[in-house]
Amino acid sequence: MEKFDVIVAGLGPAGAPLLYHLAKRGFRVLGVDMRGWEDFWGKPCGDAIGAHHPREAGLPPLPGRVIKNVVHGIDIYSPGETTRYRIRGEGYIIDRRAMGEWLVKEAIARGAEVKLRSFILAPIIEGGRVVGIKVREGDTVKEYRASVVVEATGFSRVIRKKLPRGWPVAEDIEPTDTNIAYREIIAYEDYEVEEPDIIRIYIDQEIAPGGYWWYFPESKTKVNAGLGVQGGRGHPSPTSLYRKLVSRHPLFQKRFHVENAAGAPLPTRRPSDTMVGPGVIVIGDAGYTVNPLHGGGMGYAFRAAFFAANAFEEAYNAGRFDEAALWSLNKAYMNAIGARQAALDVFRIFLQSLPNEDIRYGMEKRLIPEQDVYYTSTEGEIKISILEKAGIILRGLGRPSLLSKLRIVAEYMKKVREHYRGYPDTPQGLEPWRARLRSLYSEYRAALASR
Ligand SMILES: Cc1cc2nc3c(=O)[nH]c(=O)nc-3n(C[C@H](O)[C@H](O)[C@H](O)COP(=O)(O)OP(=O)(O)OC[C@H]3O[C@@H](n4cnc5c(N)ncnc54)[C@H](O)[C@@H]3O)c2cc1C
After folding, report:
1. Ligand 1 — pocket residues by CB below 6 A?
2. 77, 186, 341, 348 — which has fewest CB within 10 A?
3. Could you tell me if 389 and 423 lie in one domain?
4. pLDDT digits (tens, 9 = 90+) for 163-215
């Protein structure tokens, strides 16, 4: 029986950077993934990341082959495309396969062991803690053991779903806190995309209920186009909605062929209330570390991996791998990112409840002005000056209910952020903190519904 310091279960955008960080620090680490190099990081994605993400997550500069397209801004269209916001900022459309292979090979070069085409079946739990995993390799089932197992299998949550229900880290996700998304890579035959360095997001509750559709150029002639809808609401499937869109929208009335088509679910809620348990860490989609507003999860998976490597190192130095020893991951993630993501979750719930008319109206009147959209969507805060300006507009136009809703949203975004400032220092504080968080969410939903 082999024993590792850490087993990283799943080598996607969460697992691969963690493998890299741990190997670089000299730990004995095993990474396991069911895919091979040819379809590595093969889960469908929009492939867009902010240029700052890899840097902030302590990763080396991305080699040229990983970057398919350099992006200089994002356009957000209102329902009916009557209003367009342009937000400047640098980002990339990445080649996920190339990025995953690059990172994992960097880790292997630093001593990591890797098993590809190996299917993780379950955690091994002994004495009230996770001690390893069971893996199907070809026709045999093998067991691997480690001081800590990191659950990074994405939304499938292979490890997490099999943890005892009583463990706080086993927290499940509500279907309404998910999006189901479908995307195609299309290659135009005789058309060049206008402004291929601008990615586009289209909000429309009829075309993409509770989500949006996107058009992300990979080059002048190739585009990653897709559509996400909120789960748990009985909406039509994203594939059928996408088909409808393609049959009508001018961007798809050119000759093109489809190079790849696939769909997948993703979490769109605040991060997991705790990302650690006895002998176990959860990060990436498995830990719900996605931006609830736009569903971008790769950058936050990278960051969570970096914090997880730090937490493991601390626990290792302390010679203990229980929940308390790993707790610093929660503190680091909640302080740096989780509090903002939770505030954006509050905003997401509001946005999903709005009819097209209100969204169109809000964007036309620039209730949240263009230059503040980036601030709001990254900081999770609506500035008072925005509320004041929106108040004048909405009162003048006789839309008091939208104004009072916006006030409630801003108030609860603030309350939730502040609640995260008091994230507990130890596992003992989790239950009361969580109970208060749940009651804040219930109060918020009730207040929104009453307007
Ligand atoms: C259609 C769509 C579009 C998106 N667009 C964007 C975008 O433009 N930008 C962005 O930042 N985010 C986007 N996201 C979200 C982003 O894709 C995820 O947040 C990100 O991939 C999460 O990384 P992860 O490592 O947690 O999970 P995953 O990417 O799902 O990786 C999990 C890994 O675990 C492996 N695995 C799973 N189960 C097992 C098993 N039983 N045994 C062995 N291995 C296993 C998988 O092979 C995989 O390598 C999008 C998501 C979807 C669905």
Report:
1. 10-15, 32-35, 41, 43-49, 119-120, 152-154, 156, 158, 181, 183, 226, 264, 266, 284-286, 290, 295-299, 301
2. 77
3. yes
4. 999 999 999 999 999 999 999 999 999 999 999 999 999 999 999 999 999 99
